Amino acid sequence: MKKRNLIKTLAFFAACCLIFTSCAKKQQEDNVLITINGNSISLEEYMIYLDETVQSYELIGGEDIWETDFDGRTAEEVAKESAYNSVVAVELAKERADFYNVTLSETEESRAATEAGKMAENAGQSTESSYYETALNTVMDKYIYNGVKEAVSKDIIISETQMMAFCDENRDEYTKKLSQAEGKVYYYDSSEKASEDIEKIKNNDLEGISFGYAENISYTVDELKAIFGISRDITERGIYGPVSMETGYAVIYIEKITEPLGDYVEETMRSDYEEEVKSQIFDTEYSKWLSEADITINNDLWSKIVIENAHK
């Protein structure tokens, strides 16, 4: 993925997180990293959040994302802050679970145990380990967070006028991004070979291209742009690249684009708009919780946290 697209995507990801606001009032216990309204968050618990954040960043930008600059801040600093914001959001929502009558169902508890088991396995730990117990509590807390978030906005009524206005304004955009793009991706070990073959593809000389291997692809336009970091419009017979990949370079050739069914576009727009309105309502309520919260951080511990330890 091109660097400018990495910066744009991850800057958006960071912007979606809540503002990092905390200061140390006194030296915390050795293993307590954050205290939120008197409740302690251990270093181990925070590291689980950081591990998930690191995986998300690397999924978006690859392992070299850690060399990206975010307006004078390192990707590591932004990732640590994002994980911190997630911890605070979950804890503040969990405090209000009783008020909103949010509890976990047996199915959710079972799913949480399965997720925690996979996390422990990936970390080389057993389900008898303290890591598993911490992971299990973290997953269950996130389920509670989702329940509280849903409860805060469950009674919202969106007028049909508002909904139609959103749909009318965004129908063309949704039709484009939900269209199915089919074609081929050609992979190379050098950008020079990729550039040479782009010219051959333009001249319809498919027999003369020198790619290492190719694969057929079928993605929505939105997925295609995200996967390969393409900023231009996706069109039939469009050629995109060379795109820098983890193991070399790629050239994408689009053979066919099929527009989605109108009903699917309408359903997706309505679902997205409802989710957007609910998120805005929750964010407003959450801002109140955050402004009233008493949060301290163990700066001594915080300064020693590095992303290399996230998977450990």
Structural account:
This protein has 312 residues and is an alpha+beta fold. 54% of the residues lie in helices and 16% in strands. The protein has ten helices and nine strands. The protein has helices spanning 3-16, 43-61, 75-94, 106-122, 130-153, 160-177, 191-202, 221-228, 262-292, 299-302, and strands at residues 32-36, 39-42, 69-70, 73-74, 180-188, 213-220, 239-245, 248-258, 295-297. The strands form three sheets. A four-stranded antiparallel beta sheet has the order 6-5-8-7. Strand 1 and strand 2 (39-42) form a beta hairpin. The chain is globular. It starts with a helix and ends in a 10-residue tail after the last helix. 27% of the residues are buried. Mean pLDDT is 88; it is low at 1-5 and 14-28.
Please describe the topology of this protein.
Blueprint lengths: L2 H14 L15 E5 L2 E4 H19 L7 E2 L2 E2 H20 L11 H17 L7 H24 L6 H18 L2 E9 L2 H12 L10 E8 H8 L10 E7 L2 E11 L3 H31 L2 E3 L1 H4 L10
Antiparallel strand pairs: 1-2, 1-9, 3-4, 5-6, 5-8, 7-8
Helix pairs in contact: 2-3, 2-5, 3-5, 4-5, 5-9, 6-9
A few lines on this structure:
Helix content is 54%, strand content 16%.
